[in-house]
Amino acid sequence: MSFRSLRNRIVAVFVGLLVLVMAMVLVLVNRSGDQIIDGVIERQLKSGARTFQILLSQNNSQLEIAAKLLASDFAFREAIATGDKPTILSALRNHGNRIRARKMLLVSLDGRVMADTQNPSARPYPFPLPDLLSNAEQSVPVSTIAAMPSEAYQVVVVPVFAPARLAWIVMGFRVDDAWAREFASISGVEVSIVRKDKGGINTLATSLSGELAADLPKAAARLDSSHSELLTLADSHYQSVAEPLDKNVLAILQRQIDQDAAPFRTMQVVLWGILAGGVLFFIVGSFLLARRITHPINRLALAAKRIETGDYSDALAVRSQDEIGELASSFVRMSEGIASREQKILRLAYQDLLTGLFNRTRFLQALEELSEGNPAAIALVDLDRFRHINNALGHGVGDHLLIVVGQRLDAISRGSGLLARLGEDEFAFLLPEHDQNAAWAFAETILEALRKPVEIDDQRLDISASVGIALFPQDGVNASTLLRRAELAVYAAKKHRSGIALAATVEEQPEPEHLSLIGEMREALVRDEFVVHYQPKLDLHSGEVIAVEAVIRWLHPERGLIQPCKFIPFAENTGFIREITPWVLEKVVDQAARWHESGRKLLPSVNISTYDLLSAGLVETVRALASDQKLTPGLCLEITESALMEDPEISLDHLMQLAALGVRLSVDDYGAGQASLAYLKALPIHELKIDRSFIHSLAQSPKDAAIVRSTVALGHALGLTVVAEGVETEADFVWLRQVGADLVQGYWIARPMPASELEIWLDKRQRWAVAAN
Amino acid sequence: MILAPKAWLPLLLACSACATAGSLEVVAATPEGKPIEDFAVVLEAAAPSPTKKTKSAIIQRDREFNPYLTIIQTGTAIEFPNRDPFKHHVYSFSQPKMFEIKLYAGKPAKPVVFDKPGVVALGCNIHDWMEAYVLVVDTPYFGKTGQDGRAHLDNIPEGVYRLRYWHPRLMDELPTRELRMGNENVRLTLKATVPPRPAHNKPPLEGSGY
Ligand SMILES: [Cu+2]
B41-191: which CATH architecture? Predict the structure, then answer.
């Protein structure tokens, strides 16, 4: 029985207390019972002894009266005086018979028995109890119980006066067993008359029966008259007291203890019964009570354990109305609260709050759960021109649009797979059991669902989307690869305006090195591993450096300096460029401001990716810089030709806004793409940068040289500044000056360098210029 | 109880000369010096003594015999006048003179003649405590101690006598001794222990049946 258990402890306390109390009661009852028994016995014995004495004295007075009557009889005295023995005997007999006395003697003054009714013919003989006579001379009359010699008699000695003492009358009752039994029946105690002498104890008369009487002489040997003793006679217990009667004669009065103790023994048995019953009752009762208490507690503990493992399903049935019931209902409320909060947290963790669809986290989780044996497809959906809508009509409309799109996608996703919103306008389906064909078919369903215009606030919005499909496990076995492949496919679909693209058909397979770089970029930004280098742009007209192109560099702690072409494409693909570009802009603008303050007139230019150009964020960022008065030294943004062609509509819109903010716009890598001059003409651009591949082959390819020459002329014709980059030889430099290029940059002039180095370089060059002049 | 003979030493004291007759004075006392009443002192002559027949009386009054002890010469008659307003029943179971005067009032018709020497105990059959003794002696020379314990015997002729002492409450007579009487006055002191008179319950008169 373990005492850690509350139930067992309750039972132990209850039963222990009861046993303690009952044990005390029993001890008390036993002790006081014994005392009471002792007292009762003692009183019985005392009252028995008193009764015995009273009876004795009654007998005595009976004897005495009879003897005195005889002693005062005139005729009797006359008979004594005349020695008339027959008369004396007959008078003695006559008076003795009246009270049934057995012993009747006439004793002369000199102690001789003159007449004996039991032995009438005897000659005078000495009275066997001379002491009795001498006592009688002192006090009249004398009575005692005496042995004469083997029989006991209760005798009285009365003098006969005539008027002087004439003789003694001795009268006695026989003291035998019958006498003792009569006494016993009246006094309530056993009576034994014994003679005690050197030879031991002789029983003269006793009320005890056979065996008991036989044991008496031995048992009574140690008895004295001072106090009562417990004697054992034939297995019975007798409280006994001795009363001296005559010199050697004792009365032993005894009271059997067992008869007085019997009611107490019965009571003790009953008490033991009550104790046993009570203990049993308490064990059962406290066990039930404890179970009533502990059962719900145990259930609560079990429920708590279940909740610990996240199982809230089993509601606790609360029956009792007591404190435990209250505890249980509080517990139920608590677990319900926890469950609902947990669900809310789960919802927040896994749900997209705007559309109510799953979020990116949940989708990635679902991807992680894919198993090799079960092929699946990912369909990534990206709305076309969403940024444009968002910018043009506001975020409210944009959000509304996303909700409607989410609803439409949700409607078709039923039964097909898991739908989640991954990013701004990016949705994704996880389609289990879909092979390439099935996924393609599903993608067409998606496009179909989005083909219908959306009406928001009475506006009809034509929307369209691009879908990229990646297959598991063919295109990748982990979530990030699959998602990236799907994203690349979406871009491809957008790029080719094909609506749907398969990841498998997207050629670009990023080097493994790049994959890990992507993950590190975010940390790099936090750890300040990105730095900005500046490459001077030399004005061929003035020979002065009037501008610098900012290029980002990654000072990787392990790989050293990483060129932008190694990580920028992936920053664009993953959307991380959204964070890099504002950081670069900030950095560059700050640097330009410092140079401006120190008197250096350097126009900084920053490369802008397709992603930046198409997102509203860029315009916002520049607008914020402008309103902070940070654009005083001026700012030039370099945009690739291919970026302009990605979404000409949005590009135009954004470029107009940027131009309005006073930003100088430069078309980078001009000549590589297919930008039509007509289109360029519509753009608010200020500068053309001839693609470096033309400059590199100037010396070898007359055709390229011709293209450069005509591009310079064309640019000038459109009123644009023409910049040549990648100038690596003096010959190229001289040639470009000849054809009329406005600005040059390249290793032959200076490679990109940190701002501090650039300052030193500029100062050194200034001294040369002074020296040359 | 009597003391052993050596306990009492009669002392012969100097006596004044006397011509023809002497006198004897006996003082009886306990060893503690307390006088003893009713001690009989008797002188018996070796030769026959003259008889002086007299009459005596033992009165019953207040349910008592009076006197307690009467000493008489053999042949003396004693009267038993009853002075109480009720009757008495005088008896004697003593050998020298057994008699009985059944319930009577006033003076009985005949006196009782004590014609043998010896001790006669008298009782009343109606009143157990009534007790009297008559010492019958064969000599005219006797006396008894009074409350002061003194007894006087006068006019005792010269001669040799046997001196006897007796008391009702002594079972036995004290040992006798010879005493030569002259013309002088002899004084003797007697030491003895005599038990007190047994305390008979004498109930009060009023309201009683006595
Ligand atoms: Cu009388």
Answer: Sandwich (2.60)
